[in-house]
Amino acid sequence: MIKEILKNIFSKKRVIPFPEGFNVSPTQVAKIVDFQKKVDTIFGRSLRIRQIDAGSCNACEWECTALTNPIYDIQRFGIDFVASPRHADMLLVTGPVSRQMEFALKRTTIATPEPRLVVACGDCAKDGGIYKGSYAVANGVGNVIPVDAVIPGCPPTPTAIILALSEIIDKVAR
Amino acid sequence: MLLSPINVISSSFAVLLLILALTPFLRLNQRLLINVGFFLAAIASFFAAVAGFWSLVNGMTTQVILPIGLPDLPFHLRIDLLSGYFLVVVGLLAFFVSIYSIGYVKGFLGQRSVTHLVVFYVLFLAGMVLVVLADDALFFLIAWEMMAASSYFLVLYEDERVENRRAAFLYLVVAHVGAIAILLSFGVLAGLTTGFSGFQNYTFDAMRAAHLPPELATLAFLLAFFGFSAKAGVIPLHIWLPEAHPVAPSNVSALMSGVMLKTAIYGIVRVVFDLIRVFPWWWGALVLVFGLVSAVMGVLYALMQHDLKRLLAYHSVENIGIILIGIGLSMIFTSFNMSLLAALALIAGLYHTLNHAMFKGLLFMGAGSVLNATHERNMEEMGGLIRFMPWTAVLFLIGCISISALPPFNGFVSEWLTYQAFLLSPALPSPLLNLMIPLGAALLALTSALAAACFVKAFGVTFLGNHRGHHGGHIHEAGWSMRLGMLLAALACLGLGIFPTYMIGWMDPLAEKLVGGKIAASASGLGWMWLTPIAAERASYSAPLAFIGILTVVVVTYLLLHARPGAIRRAPLWNCGFEKVTSRMQYTATSFAMPLRRIFGFLFSIKEHVRQPPSASHPAFPDRIHYHLRVRDRFWTWMYQPVIDASFWLSRRIGRMQQGRIQIYLIYSFVTILVLLIFS
Amino acid sequence: MEKIRKKSVKTWEHLNESYFEVRTDDFKDACRHLYEDLHAILRVMFACDEREKDGLFRIYTVFDLPGIDRFIIVVLPIQESDPSFPSLTQTIPAAHWYEREISDMFGLSAQGHPDKRRLVFHEAFPADSHPLRKDWSMSETDKQEWGDGSTIKVPHPFMEVSGEGIVEIPVGPVHAGIIEPGHFRFSAIGETIFFLEPRLFYTHKGTEKHFETLGFPEGVKLAERVSGTSSFAHGAAYCMAVERMLGLAITEKASAVRTLVLELERIYNHIGDIGNMCAGTALNLGYMKGAVIKEQLMQLNEILTGSRYLRGLNVVGGVTKDVFDQADDILKTLDGATREYKALMELLLGSVSHVERLENTGKLSKDIARKLGVTGVAARASGLTDDLRKSHPHLLYDRLIFEAHTHEKGDVLARMLIRAEETECSLSMIQALLESGYKGDLIVPLRAAPPFASAMGYVETPRGSLIYWVMSDKEGKPLRVKLRSPSYCNWPAVPFAVHGNIVPDFPLCNKSFNLSYSGTDM
To answer: What is the ipTM of this complex?
Structure first.
């Protein structure tokens, strides 16, 4: 542990590079920088997200968790995931909404104070995805609670989530 | 007729006698008996408090010799500063409790007769007042006995349950063991008086004038301390307290805990500071040690309890410990002739006496109204009572805040003064003392913190959350008289907390009389708003400012939150999206105390086990699990059980003398007569 | 074995699966004989609605004999008029959830089962409604009420620990972090947990029924989305089942690709889990370092297959891409990852406060693990040797030399060490695979499915053994797809591991098992 601390103090700070061939275009990078400014002005560097799993396969959750790792690091934008819906500004819902999670999802939405945004993340949350038509799903978050935006993808990569959040905040600003 | 304290006290007695006289006529109409009896008792206690206050403030001492008493041994009565102060303690709380009793005792109507409750209540009050006023050993012991006996009958009020009888019996035994010790102590003191003819040597005046050789003085002190500790509930003689106080009716518990224990403190102060007056430092150290042990152990025991009244009873042990800490320190400083510090410590101890009477009385009254409403003493069956009993809840909360020594209430002032007595002590000649004083301060701090934790538990589990109980009966708020009694006690707590400088001013002559130091001048050095014992640079506390500050913050916050109507939306409790929250899903008293049980468990005998009865199905799928916890007092197994066993053994041995045959008894008589004839 | 053969009405074999159809009276005896006398492991127990074939339901009980590569499947036919079967739970505790699930989904009740409550469906689901029956339907109002969740049609009482002072702590479906939903009911005194009862199936999506509406080739997509972090393993197991049913043999090249990618999945999961456990002990440094390594591996996944979760690579008959073409990328990334991983392990095992939290916490005894049929990392950490790659070598595992690692203590530290050892083992396996060349096309052409043909597919996922079983109907469409993920076996063991620990250690225990809620709930 001492070694780690000393290494951190005496190292030249380096940014962990993306590998070659990794698909982030310059326009997307510019968007992400712009995103940081928007969160600053609109949310005062404090956008708090409560992520709810309404029956997803867990891939979308791991992508949301990956947002907090040192590579994507959304905390530098002032965004963080919170434990209680009472602290949240935005609900990020994944999964096709299995019937047995509908009640909990509605309760969580009521427990979130206004103003709040509801974002459906993933193909399943959009319209049920591969599970569309199963007897045990509600075919998309929009059928259970009113949704403000949708992030498509199965699962949407962390980069895609950040870019989508950037567009959502754009719309909120207008 | 000239109005003087003695006249006021006499009228107080007259009122009490009036109640006794009226009782036979009113006993058929029980409701009227309650109303008249307790109303008159309230008036009598009020008079007693006024008499005491008058005497204290004006520094008057009055002595009266009563025409009653044994032949050649009349009763001597005396109101001086010390008695006056304790009269205030007794009278004030008895006033509040008597008003409370008007409503409380009505709860017994229809179940049992309240006649003897009223009678023994009056006798109890009279006994306590007389103990404080007695000026000779005989009168003192008679009043003491009257107090003990009447409280025994009061504890035994609901005597159909075997544990009540057992508790009362235990109380009686310990009280009488203490009384014997007090008697022996007075005997030692009386035996040393000289220069008085006849039988005058049993008066306190004689004892004051006597010159005591150190060993006999020590013997007298030890016996007196033992005897009074038995009544005060100092560890290890506390065993009766948590048994007797819970089973008595709550107004009686309030009086016993709030006032009767203080008469023992009165006894100690009277014997040490007034009758003996010159003593070595180790007496004070002894009192200090017992005080510290009682404080820490008392609060630890209290933390383990889930019976509300038992918890409060153990807290009385703790607070008596704190009072003894103040008195012990005062004794130490007096023996080194540091009169200023001695006055500070003594005032701290005596102030705590009055404070404890107020807030413990308030807490027991609150517990009584909870008991009246729910018929339940076990905290694990309560919960959510703040919705049904808002007044009781708020007043109980004031009691909790006071006993946890939080500003702006009175508990803070007296504990703060005790801390100041610790912290302002200079280097003392004895190295042992120099070690003990900081240790004592640390233990006192531990006690305060644990007391606060305990009352968070008591208030939270009883009043907050959801109701855990199983009976679906409706729970109603207490009646107006109960609320009035509690409200007055709460106001007294607040008043004693906000105006400490006035209190100290009134108590100052008492301190000067007993230990020769005055602190009122320095205490109010910066005016009535600031309490600065000794010196302003060392320590200061402004109670009125603290109170106004807290009030302002509360009011401003409330206004800010409720400024815009409709801005706050109410939503159901967030419970992770789960539908049904039951009353089992809240913290219980046992769970609250669990971390402390883990740390301090070695001080108790704790047995905790989980039983999984063998079920028909596979052991991997239990269908019933049972958890059982038992926490017991180690003193019972170490001290009392051996003594009880020994005394039973001894009595069985001696019992062999009772053969049951008349020939043997005749031989006994014959031998006795022979012996008397030979040795006469 | 001979005993069972004598008692059975009918026997047939398919590759390494031996089916024995028995009568109701012999069912319990046969299973008991396998479990107690031959020490077989119960792998999965499920039912199938074969009424369109011969008017019967059938219950399949799959046993795994130790030491030989053979599955013994005891089959019990059940008449529609008498929908019940003798329960195995008293003798074989591992069967308890399977039987409750059969009862919920098919309406066949287990006689003598100690727990009469429903497993899969919560209170608002109508009684006597069994979705996996072929003739089942559900009205819209029923679906609305089910989703609404406020009407109680079949109550589900939780076990209450009696005794004064017990606090019930409900940790509801929506948990505090980014994690899947499930309900835990603790009975605790203060901090110590005396009893835990989990309630799962909040993410029940009706996957098995949904498979029946998609065709066999389209089912791969659904199989990949049952549990995100074992997408590839699920896809591989499903494809293996369908290929075995169709009688297809995939090429060596396809097998090599599947083996390599399975090991890649194993690595990123294990390293991610080791990092996650640091989140449970508040060692954020370890957590973030683990997350960085995992991110690098997932970016490698995206380069190789276009999906960070290795989706879209498996198809029935083979794989879509030859990852061996990018062997350089793989080696370079794994090189860097290995170095960082070794540094991480040094840091974690050298941090006394971290190791102290892990040691002696969440102990799962070997006895309970064996009785409940625990599989995978949890089983190996408790002293059981349970690795499908060794006991039933599939794909190219018979060519690779490795050991199944075990630890005896069964605590959280043991589970972490198992993951560490397996990571190193997988890294060397990938090296070995990349050194050789393999022949064959990527995909072999499909053929039509024969009517009422069945087969098993099995794969060792990062969490444990995964079993698929498919059966086709008379038109060659899926009649039944049964999937049993490793988390399904391990969930019932979690209360036993947690008993006696303090509440703050519960997230750590949970993370050490790292079970998939979605895989269990299907």
So the answer is: 0.88
